[in-house]
Structures are given as C-alpha cells and as structure tokens.
C-alpha cells in the first residue's frame, strides 16, 4: 500500500512539474514570437517577413513543447485574423509554410533576405 501511495504521489508531483515546465516554455515562446514581431517592425525591410515568421517560430520551439504550442497558436491566430481582414490567401499560405519551417527546427536563415542587417 505504501508503495502504491508513493507511486501515485510521485506521478502527481512529476505531472505538476511538467505542467509548470510547459507553461514556462509557452510564456517564453510567446516572448520569442513578440521579439520576432518587434524586430520585423523595427527592421522594416522588404521581403523579410518570412524570415521573421520562421525565426520567431524557431526560437519558440527551441524552448520545448510549450514553446512550440505557443508558436502554433499565435501563428494560426495571426493568419486567421489576416484572412478575416481580407489579406491574400497566397501570402497567408507562404507565412504558414515559414512558420512550420521554423517550428520544425529548420534554419530560419533559409528565408533571410540579402542585406538584412546582422542585428536581426
């Protein structure tokens, strides 16, 4: 009985710990996405949006499952809003491809335009 109680207690503790970890990763991933967005606005560089999409998703996903989840939720919400506002479906599909590229761990520099300052 003591063994069973100990196993249940340990699984609860580990479960709570993993939820705290997930939530921390999600908040960190949301910060990564915000940083990529603000960098994109600051850079104001033509044809750089796909790079910033990929970079934000990449950075968020590197934090773990919570970061990848936050990146997907934020990316999907942004694209859904763009569709509601009547922005181009082709551009939205290209943005989502860049988002998925970054979330999958592929190098976001694949989308980096020539001449974008090294700061970004």
Automatic annotation (TrEMBL):
Region annotation (Disordered) ranges: 96-120
Compositionally biased, Basic and acidic residues: which spans?
103-120
- List, alphabetically, the GO terms of the cellular component aspect: high-density lipoprotein particle
Q: Where is the signal peptide?
A: 1-18
Which sequence ranges form a coiled-coil region, renumbered to this chain? Answer: none
- Per the UniProt entry, what is one GO biological process? acute-phase response
Top-rank taxon of the source lineage equals Eukaryota
Keywords for this protein: Acute phase, HDL, Signal
Q: Which InterPro entries match?
A: Serum_amyloid_A, Synovial_Prolif_Regulator
Q: Which family does it belong to?
A: Belongs to the SAA family.
Q: Sorted alphabetically, which PANTHER family does this protein's record hold? A: SERUM AMYLOID A, SERUM AMYLOID A PROTEIN
Q: What does this protein do?
A: Major acute phase reactant. Apolipoprotein of the HDL complex.
Q: What is this protein called?
A: Serum amyloid A protein
Species of origin: Aotus nancymaae (Ma's night monkey)
């Amino acid at each position: 009985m003591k063994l069973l109680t100990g196993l249940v207690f340990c699984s609860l503790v580990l479960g709570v710990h993993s939820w705290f970890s997930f939530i921390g990763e999600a908040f960190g991933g949301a910060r990564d996405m915000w940083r990529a967005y603000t960098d994109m606005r600051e850079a104001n560089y033509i044809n750089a949006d796909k790079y910033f999409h990929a970079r934000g998703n990449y950075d968020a996903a590197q934090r773990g499952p919570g970061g990848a989840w936050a990146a997907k939720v934020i990316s999907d919400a942004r694209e859904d809003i763009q569709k509601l506002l009547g922005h181009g479906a082709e551009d939205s599909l290209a943005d989502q491809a860049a988002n998925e590229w970054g979330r999958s761990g592929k190098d976001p520099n694949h989308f980096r335009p020539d001449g974008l300052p090294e700061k970004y």
